Hints:
The chain is an all-alpha fold.
Amino acid sequence: MFRFGKIIDACSRVFGFVAGALVLAIALITTYEVFMRFVLGSPTLWTQDYSIYCLVGLAFLASAYTLWKGKHIRVDFFLERLSLENKSLMIITADLLSLVYIGLLARYSLDMFAESFATMATFPTPIRPLRWPVYGLLFFGIAMLLIQQIKEIICQIGSLVRKNQAKEISIKGKSFLFVFLWLAIVGAGVWITLQINTVAGLIFLLFALMFGGIPVAFSLGSLGLIGFFYFGGMRLISAASPQVAFQAMDSYILLAIPLFVLCGQIFSSGKIGKLLLDLMSKLLSGVPAGLIGASIFSCAVFAAITGSSVACAATIGLFALPVLKEKGYNRNLSYGTLAAGGTLGILIPPSASAIIYCSVTRESLGALFMAGFVPGVILALIFAAYAMIVSVRKGEYERPERTSFKEKLVAIKESIWALGAPILILGGIYAGIFTPTEAGAVAVIYSLIVAMATKEIRLKDIPAVLMDSITTSGFILLIVVGAILFGDILTRLQVPQEASRIISEIGLSRWVVLIGVMVLWLIMGMFLEVVSILLITIPIVYPVILSLGFDGVWFGVIATLNMELALLTPPVGLNLYVIKGISGDSLENIVKGTWPFFSLLVIGIILLCFFPEIALWLPSSMKIIR
Length: 626
């Protein structure tokens, strides 16, 4: 069995590598399209279609490798509070239930693949490519995920048995109490869904499945299949589930996610964080407490390269924390500064949250990127000003030596390639040279050329970089698949329309509704990560918000700011754990340092509510929105 498990893991690694190679292929062919259109004036007909087909392939091929690496997101808030044996039994049970969803999707995607192969059906596009190769990638990816999941369950059971035999844990009859109780709750949720109230039952089931340990992607997808069963039995599941799974990835906007993730991974692999911190600290060398302000501005620039808050906090924090400690800055304030600085990664474009939001709402991604830029810069200035003022008032900093103009020029020269990335991305979008998705592709090629030219990455390192990036893209894209399946059911149930009708009948103020949504996000942020929150709530609340007269792009910025709060909200706030991992300090001290920045974020949200022009001025001036 051990040898068989090794073979399965090796196959998952191969699938992961192919998925990573597909991201690079997307970057190459999309950059080729930009070159042909902008330089030669001869746009292609095939690049967009084939890029999307590559996205379908990488999303599902990456799923097994992501599972093997343990990167699929679980809500472990309650699981972590159980004893080791109870937690292990719950996870095994949750994974067994996940098998039902994965197995059904694999079974019916096989039918879709076989039918397309038998009929040699083509896609209705100008180049009319065959369907079966794309459906084949979808099927084989899910089939590999199914096999990997079975292997993981067998390994978990074997490990549990060995620990019980070695007396490390004690499994008794009462150890199964939590499992039986949870299964009863899930069963009650299914009964409520099918027999009493479908919407209430689905919401109840969503939280029952997620808090019981089923990964978010599989929880959402399972609800989609239950909804299909409610509307049309197994026949609708067989017909709709693989098609909806495919359509979930049939999105040009979503291409930006793996592209910007890979770009961030390439830059994170080098010493860009150190170079940016060195540059910013030298530029602010004559300013009291300039180093802590430099940490924030380094985060802002890195955010404009990667679009990832976690990567931003981790990369800059790794270099900044030791220096801040050495220079006598307050420990907790340093933690809060870097955790909050990291949140700029999902507001300053390119923003992963903006991509998710636009993929669901079909708002202009370019408009939302530009709308997030000014609020992001303002927040960076506010964060930096607060941290510097507090440090000066308390006298908890060491005044650095003023650097010469020549030293500043040297620092700029060393960082010029890193600074070129955000200029290329934002400048290209602003000038209309390429779309946000194309900007991601160009950024990947640019970052790869720079990393190899500066010997930060060698040719032999590229496979590892591709596979490191694909686990992040893999868990996000599989959550998108689950969310689209779930969203299809919400659409069939007309949940957004019903919510709008109820609000209209009650006569609630639109601001009361908006505050209610933000409070809901704040609560969800205590237990869920950003992607899950957006994909669960936006399909429902976005139509309601539009019906109340709010602007969709402005609401996207509001949503992103609220997601920043989620990154700082215990017990699940990811940036808190990033700083904890770097510092080795307690979560309590990190939270203490973060609360002032949390409050500043809330003030920023209030300002944006009163003055929406802060977000809408730039895209309006570019005539992206009216």
